[in-house]
């Protein structure tokens, strides 16, 4: 048994690495089913946006859109959209270790130190969230970022729970796959720490490219910070918490802001 820098114990069985060729193929499969697929699709959308007659700054992207004009059916669609994207998270964890518990321990996705993780997550959210809004506002002012509507759902009793669940889903999917899983597998392939950080950051930026240059750059910066945090601590839980908090504030709080305020700071 050994102890890593984060204080987590591990055994050889928990961290046994498959042959190099299998690891490379595994990474491409996991990313191809999740975030790399989203990155390619975002690039296609970005090319579509750039080749339209209207300027990039005049276009709009809607997150969490309504998918039916019937409330009950829309709720079913929303649950479907929330659940199935989490399957790659389970797959990534399943491939990292013989048991899900061991895999979660390997990437620090556990509640072994809840208060420290919540506190760290809140601090990271505050440190990244405000500059992120600044990147978005600057991009809107320069006309290189589309207008992002964080919540396109009609107001029903389940709207806020669905938006909160969407924030949790995004936090788990992006942080477990783009940071925890990818970092571990690239370390298995003997990538240097800076190379791992850059790869993770560029992946994060890629699937936000459909929103324009501003969100792409902002998410690359966020990706550098998050991947560097993981490289130092080997714990993904604070990053999941931070991501969830940031998205929840945007998804739920943004629609409540007066439109005049949003226009004044170029957030519309």
Q: What is the gist of this entry?
A:
The protein is mainly α and 268 residues long. It contains eleven helices and four strands.
Write the layout of secondary structure elements.
Elements: E1 2-3, E2 9-10, H1 20-32, H2 35-50, E3 60-62, H3 71-83, H4 87-96, H5 100-107, H6 114-142, E4 147-149, H7 159-188, H8 193-206, H9 213-233, H10 237-253, H11 259-264
Parallel strand pairs: 3-4
Antiparallel strand pairs: 1-2
Helix pairs in contact: 1-2, 1-7, 2-8, 3-7, 4-5, 4-7, 6-9, 6-10, 7-8, 7-9, 7-10, 8-9
Distance between the termini: 54 Å
Q: Strand count, sense and closure of the main sheet? A: 2 strands, antiparallel
Beta-strand fraction estimate? under 5%
| Helix and strand element order | EEHHEHHHHEHHHHH
How many helices? The count is 11
Report low-confidence residues grouped into runs of 5 or more: none
The 3D shape can be described as: globular
Strand order of the largest sheet: 1-2
**Structural class of the helices, strands and pairings?**
mainly alpha
The averaged pLDDT comes out at: 90
How much helix is in the residues? 55-70%
Number of strands: 4
């Amino acid at each position: 048994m050994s102890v890593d820098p984060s204080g987590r114990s591990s055994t050889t069985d928990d961290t046994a690495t498959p042959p190099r060729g299998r690891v490379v193929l595994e990474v491409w499969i996991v990313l191809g089913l999740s975030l790399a697929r989203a990155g390619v699709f975002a690039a296609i959308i970005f090319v579509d946006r750039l080749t339209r007659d209207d300027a990039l700054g005049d276009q709009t992207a809607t997150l969490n859109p309504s998918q039916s004009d019937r409330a009950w059916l829309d709720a079913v669609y929303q649950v479907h959209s929330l659940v199935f994207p989490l399957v790659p998270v389970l797959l990534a964890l399943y491939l990292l270790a013989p048991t899900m518990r061991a895999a979660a321990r390997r990437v620090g996705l556990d509640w072994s130190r809840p208060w420290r993780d919540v506190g760290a997550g809140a601090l990271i959210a505050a440190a990244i969230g405000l500059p992120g809004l600044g990147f978005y506002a600057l991009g809107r002012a320069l006309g290189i970022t589309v207008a992002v509507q964080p919540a396109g759902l009609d107001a029903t009793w389940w709207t806020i729970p669905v938006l909160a669940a969407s924030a949790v889903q995004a936090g788990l999917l992006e942080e477990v796959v783009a940071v925890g899983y990818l970092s571990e597998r690239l370390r298995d392939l003997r990538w240097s720490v800076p190379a791992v950080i850059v790869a993770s950051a560029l992946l994060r930026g890629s699937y936000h490219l459909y929103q324009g240059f501003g969100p792409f750059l902002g998410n690359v910066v966020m990706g550098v910070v998050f991947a560097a945090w993981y490289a130092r601590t080997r714990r993904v839980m604070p990053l999941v918490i931070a991501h969830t908090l940031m998205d929840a504030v945007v998804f739920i709080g943004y629609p409540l802001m007066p439109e005049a305020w949003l226009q004044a700071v170029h957030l519309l």
